[in-house]
């Protein structure tokens, strides 16, 4: 087989998984080594399933497993893998630079990042209407989604459980206010409503499906796939929560086009260096802040604060400002734990403020003395 026909074969086999000319250019340095391009469709305990032009292979990731958890192989990665017959087991020799990645912080005390999906175009946040909306949690998901480099989308699932159209409209409006610049769709997989719109969204590129257990992610995945691929369990009536039906992150090709990465339900959604994402979620607050009298306004009690004025007039909800402050503080803490330079800057700022405070007290004592 000539090189041109081999390249054509690779394109025809991998194009449904997102292979394009840009990925081919990234892979070019590995071609002379006899390695094969492929996309990781599942990772499990140091091994991964990789789809190549020759089919799906099981490969070991020992050669590309560094100490940095942010650089381990992840579902959605494009990799260079050894061909069949080279050795057993086959090994992933390298992964191509990621275009985007959805990252959250782990629950560990070491504050490590965890990559949930790589090379994604849409980050779909599934939110169940079977329970009371948690707008703060939606904001967290969206901050990470914006930071990933993908386009966020919010899907309100189980819309059939809210039969009153007025109530449903109010719920959608609440989420739209929480998610500026983000499409908010209502879907009922049971009735088949809204699935055509969702299919059109995920039909181009790679989408990752995110949300808590019980949000209906596996049901959505099955509806988009047109078959029962993902196991589904009923959510508890009392709180709408379900078990982790999906236990690994799986990459699936959709029959209508596009690729879907289904993920296990997420209990914790910790921020991970998501300052830009937080700013995007609260874009109306950042826009207001540009009109504040002081450029370093903390929006607490400063005169001429446009943010506080907006709260007084009802233009901005107090809940939004409190959530904004909370996520900013959390993000600064996580970044400070992982960024020595920023830690030093924060310590320097603390020392400066401490010195200013002591100088002020000394001045008062001198004046009073």
From TrEMBL:
Cofactor(s) listed in the protein's UniProt record: Zn(2+)
Matching Gene3D superfamilies: P-loop containing nucleotide triphosphate hydrolases, Probable gtpase engc, domain 3
Cofactor annotation remark: Binds 1 zinc ion per subunit.
Single GO molecular function: GTPase activity
Example of a GO biological process term: ribosomal small subunit biogenesis
Cross-referenced InterPro entries: G_CP_dom (IPR030378), P-loop_NTPase (IPR027417), Ribosome_biogen_GTPase_RsgA (IPR004881), RsgA_GTPase_dom (IPR010914)
Chain ranges of the EngC GTPase domain: 118-267
Occurrences of domain CP-type G (ranges): 110-269
Pfam families, alphabetized: RsgA_GTPase (PF03193)
Residues binding Zn(2+), per UniProt: 292, 297, 299, 305
Subcellular location(s) per record: Cytoplasm
Principal subcellular localization: cytoplasm
Subunit-structure text: Monomer. Associates with 30S ribosomal subunit, binds 16S rRNA.
Family under the similarity heading: Belongs to the TRAFAC class YlqF/YawG GTPase family. RsgA subfamily.
NCBIfam families registered for this protein in UniProt: ribosome small subunit-dependent GTPase A
Its job: One of several proteins that assist in the late maturation steps of the functional core of the 30S ribosomal subunit. Helps release RbfA from mature subunits. May play a role in the assembly of ribosomal proteins into the subunit. Circularly permuted GTPase that catalyzes slow GTP hydrolysis, GTPase activity is stimulated by the 30S ribosomal subunit.
Protein name: Small ribosomal subunit biogenesis GTPase RsgA
High-level lineage: Bacteria, Bacillati, Actinomycetota, Actinomycetes, Kitasatosporales
